Amino acid sequence: xNTRPRIKLxxxxxxxxxxxxxxxxxLVLWSLTLANYVELPEIIPTHYNSTGEVDAFGDKSxxxxxxxxxxxxxxxxxxxxxxxxxxxxxxxxxxENALHQYTNATRMMRVLKLVVVLIFGIIVFRTIENxxxxxxxxxxxxxxLTMAMIxxxxxxxxxxxxxxxx
Length: 166
Prior knowledge:
Blueprint: H1 13-37, E1 43-48, E2 54-59, H2 65-80, H3 98-131, H4 142-163
Antiparallel strand pairs: 1-2
Helix pairs in contact: 1-2, 1-3, 2-3, 3-4
């Protein structure tokens, strides 16, 4: 049975800003996709290998998979983020450290939600650039950039959680 304290967290300006940037970025992703859909050729790149080269093609309607998946992930993480007492933590959650640990964990989730939208947005943008002849694949920089965008915030927030266990 989960005996962790349940706390209603108040959003700070940073939290509100991250939420707004996340939702706006999601809207931009959908706008970019919808605005360019009509002009896309019938066959577009649908998959890229680890070096950023196109390795699969498909119908242009596949471009909608990216914003749909992004939206599902974003909304799902938003709902999950309302229940920080169910997250996994690197320490025992007590009444004394719950506020700090929950605040830190929910902020990490907000950053990662934004990162997910940005990564999928880059893929949509580069796919559109590819079909317009302005790019060739995602680029060799894509995979290292993606890994950095995911793991640097995670390391930062996990270190913050471990530093303030009590």
